[in-house]
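CLD34 protein (Corythaixoides concolor), 209 aa
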Amino acid sequence: VSTSHLQLAAFALGTVGWILCTVSMGIVEWRVWHVYNTTIISSGIAWVGIWKVCFISDVLISPGYKEQFCHKYSGYDSSIPQEIYAAQGLLLIAMFMGLLGLAATVFALRNVYMGIAHKILITRFFLVGGFFYIFAGMCVLVPVSWNFYSVLHNQSIAFPPSYYMPSSPAAQEAGAAIPIGIVAVILLLLSGSFSLSYRFPVITNTITK
């Protein structure tokens, strides 16, 4: 048990990283657009996520009342940039890989804490868990860095007319999902490194006279 403290920390960090990965995938604030025309986008701010785009409007839903209007992306919208569709797939893969990493780590820790001295089984499951964590972290890193690059270069998106969005913002900034994703990447890579560092203790037999 005393040799698996880092692996227990890997499970804790991996759990938090997996949760943050799921959170970043679910929230819409990936790219925050500031727009000049407030006729429809009442607040002048729109949120571009990986599943939908949202903004506050006092015209589209209930005239005279400011409510959030959201439009989900369709797989047929060729105008939606590749980094958004890539983020959808990669984050789903990351969530699944992270879950497999947690399962492998739990199984290995269970054997350790129950005193099951099966070197090959324990070592391999820690290694498998570590690879899953690292793969999940890389799957999160790609869409986070890609979308952050798009924000830095103020890249436009030619939304269809039904989205009620301008083709380019006056300015844009990174939303909350990007820093959350960065933290998730760090935690998943750390947990993977900790899992891969496991070494089964050498058991020596001492002969007493």
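The domain at 3-26+75-197 is CATH 1.20.140.150 (Butyryl-CoA Dehydrogenase, subunit A; domain 3). The two ends are 29 Å apart (CA to CA). ok done for today
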